[in-house]
Amino acid sequence: xxxxxxLMKTAQTPTNIAVIKYWGKRDxxxxxxxxxxxxxxxDPAHLCTTTTVAVSPVFQQDRMWLNGKEISLSGGRFQxxxxxxxxxxxxxxxxxxxxxxxxxxxxxxxxxIASYNNFPTAAGLASSAAGFACLVxxxxxxxxxxxxxxxxxxxxxxxxxxxxxxxxxxxxxxIMGKEEDGSDSVAVQLVDEKHWDDLFIVIAVVSSRxxxxxxxxxxxESVETSLLLQHRAKEVVxxxxxxxxxxxxxxxxxxxxxxxxxxxxxxxxxxxDTCPPIFYMNDTSHRIISYVEKxxxxxxxxxxxxxxxxxxAVLIARNRKAAAQLLQRLLFYFPPKSDIDLDSYVIxxxxxxxxxxxxxLKDVEALSPPPEIKENAAAQKYPGEVxxxxxxxxxxxxVLLTNENLALLNPETGLPx
Length: 417
Ligand SMILES: Nc1ncnc2c1ncn2[C@@H]1O[C@H](COP(=O)(O)OP(=O)(O)OP(=O)(O)O)[C@@H](O)[C@H]1O
Ligand SMILES: C[C@@](O)(CCOP(=O)(O)OP(=O)(O)O)CC(=O)O
Known about the structure:
By secondary structure, the chain is α+β, with helices and mostly antiparallel strands.
């Protein structure tokens, strides 16, 4: 009685982008998909969630703050994650603080959670993926859960399907599973981030406004109305998954790019095949596809493009050289508005700007039209259509941050700093 201690853990978890898409559930509450999917984890240095979780006998209820604002934890998805983690909690002892928590105590103790995304939330940049993976990972560390990452992925999955793939770095497969209870619907690592570390990723953030149709309701409508979705899940994806695994294993970029682009296009075709149709891409997204397709058909090194449930383009280049050429082309067509400097227009791994010979806006203005463009009309520019570019690479999985200064909760009060 009268105890005031606070125990906490802070974790950092990456986001991921699917190259073979998850779209459609066979079980809504357990979040079980209609097909396998494969993703690449993005470098947490540029896109990640940081989450601090704390426990104290002083806390009166479970509470959460997302990007500084308190949010409700009453939703089924948060409740599922909290319930499943608590169920697996073990004894914890902190001798320095004189704290001992028995397994049974976890049912009564409340937690505080503070989370921060270093990129826009709910803008089609998979904030829910990094967010739920980080929540589950941090809680598992706090509560001394013994399960491995794959078993934790089955819990994160119940927060948001794509979150299960953020428990690992590199390339990750979410196996759809067969069991009704979802126990075999887990993520596994195909290869770690070092396996194919030449890859370079450029994300064109086309719009960071909240989208009109959430992934959750969009895929529900697709399952209910799209015949193409049924065909895709049964006939197309199983074959593509095998080919994609081969391409990744063998560093076969041509095959990887072809499969990635085809799968993104089919996912958006399923959205169009949904009644009423769902439009996630916009004119800018379509323009980017056309330019990349033109480039891929010319002599250049191919580039893979993929779009999630939003207009942002994720472009994957074979290596830095191809990425530098890609950035030159992108900046030619989509220069910043006149009041934005290059430093805030291209963020993340900016070293690629040097490779592209772009030190400032003058260099962008001086870019000549890409050689594959023969007709002048096609060389039209669209300043301001892209909000900014994020340059990044494949990255590692979740980590625990031991530096207390990086915690988002005050170690004395357990409230946001
Ligand atoms: N750091 C976080 N911790 C816990 N939950 C989060 C976090 N960030 C986002 N979420 C949850 O995810 C929701 C946003 O998910 P949503 O699917 O709408 O967007 P998105 O994940 O950014 O885009 P998409 O999944 O389509 O790529 C938020 O409303 C919140 O419930
Ligand atoms: C288009 C996608 O990004 C869909 C992601 O859907 P979510 O994982 O956000 O959906 P819920 O499971 O309902 O939370 C493709 C993918 O990431 O595989």
